[in-house]
Amino acid sequence: MAKVIVVTSGKGGVGKTTSSAAIGTGLALRGHKTVIIDFDIGLRNLDLIMGCERRVVYDFVNVIKGESNLKQSLIKDKRVDTLFVLPASQTRDKDALSKEGVAKVLEDLAEEGFEFIICDSPAGIETGAIMALYFADEAIVTTNPEVSSVRDSDRILGMLASKSKRAEQGLEPVKEHLLLTRYNPERVKRGDMLSVEDVQDILAIPILGVIPESPAVLKASNSGEPVIYDSESDAGQAYADAVSRLIGEEMPLRFLEEEKKGLFSRLFGG
Amino acid sequence: MSFFDYFRSTKEDNSAQTAKERLRIIVAHERNQRSGPDYLPAMKQDILDVIKKYVEIDSDQVNVSLDNKDEELSILELNITFPDKN
Description:
Chain A is α/β, with parallel strands linked by helices. Chain A is built from 13 helices and eight strands. In chain A, strands 3-4-2-5-1-6-7-8 form an eight-stranded mixed sheet, with helices on both faces. The mean pLDDT of chain B is about 80. Chain A: GO terms for molecular function: ATP binding; ATP hydrolysis activity.
């Protein structure tokens, strides 16, 4: 049975696409047949983060409209053979998505034997975002330790509880996970950034992972290689841990403490 | 934190604590609204207009909330602070 997981946040720029790419890749690296779908119609970016932007021929909207079949539109990842990307359309608007259309694509993907379907949601709470979360079995609520992001995440939790298919049909609720990104332990210690506990207190959902703010994330997007491949980096390792937790492994949280610094940087900062 | 930071006062302004308090209040408020029916804001406005016909009062002196006790019982609570008579 395919598991549909939405990566959502409400607020833009908190790391949904970075997280979708890293987690989707992580699942595929563990041998699970995985597809990542870009729901951000008109503002496609997952292709860039995944490094397959030059290989887009047909897209998600083409499949929904019957202008191409699913196989033609799926881009097979060059690094892992169990990973596929379904890009968003760059030219249409978000009204091109319909519940029936999305439902059909998800059914077909499940029939193709996909175990995980990752839906990379657009920002906001409009059609695109609702479509991305509607069919979800699980939700990864991506949040920055910052007031507007936390508030928007709470709003999205409200949507999951009322607007999702599981809510409408009175099924078991969408399983919610908190993914805290751009975490800076040093600033938390100084008292000028919300801590993991603070955010968890407010949102009251189980934590999937804490991704430290890291130069590795920008480096990864520059080169179109999901940051989880950078296994030397703190962010790469934190995503790998999050993937483990997602498939049910117990993992203690890491990178919550500031790095020990040498004398030089202690004296001069940086 | 660099050497020079030790001279700055860091203890007194803990902005994360302020952030948490503000969030706690606004999130609780919004959750409460979310659980209420769609007509609640309009009804609140109508109630306010009726009161205003008789008493001079500000919007923030009227508090209307709907508490869902259980499946069968919801309580509409109306809390009005009347201005001082003087």
